[in-house]
């Protein structure tokens, strides 16, 4: 797998919550949960299953910071 994204985080799928069109896929990366919203079709094509290894790939043009 070759990607232009530089932030490729290996982890384990911990949960897949399927909606009407999209799914929320949660991946544990070193104990931190990263959540991605992807299409149900992508979940099926990738064959994602809880407990399996996967990568969280982060490619963003903006990074936002928040503070209370």
TrEMBL record:
| InterPro entries (alphabetical) | Mo/tungstate-bd_C_term_dom, Mop_domain, Transp-assoc_OB_typ1
Check the record and name the Pfam families matching this protein.
TOBE
A Gene Ontology biological process term:
molybdate ion transport
Q: Does the keyword Methyltransferase apply?
A: no
- Per UniProt, residues of the Mop domain are 2-67
Is Iron included in the keywords of this UniProt record? no
Q: Which UniProt keywords apply?
A: Molybdenum
Q: What is this protein called?
A: TOBE domain protein
């Amino acid at each position: 797998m070759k990607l232009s994204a530089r932030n490729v985080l290996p982890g384990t799928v911990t949960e897949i919550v399927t909606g009407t069109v999209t799914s929320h896929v949660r991946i544990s990366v070193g104990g931190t949960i990263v959540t991605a919203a992807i299409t149900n079709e992508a979940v099926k094509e990738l064959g994602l299953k809880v407990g399996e290894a996967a990568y969280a790939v982060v490619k963003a043009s903006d990074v936002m910071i928040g503070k209370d």
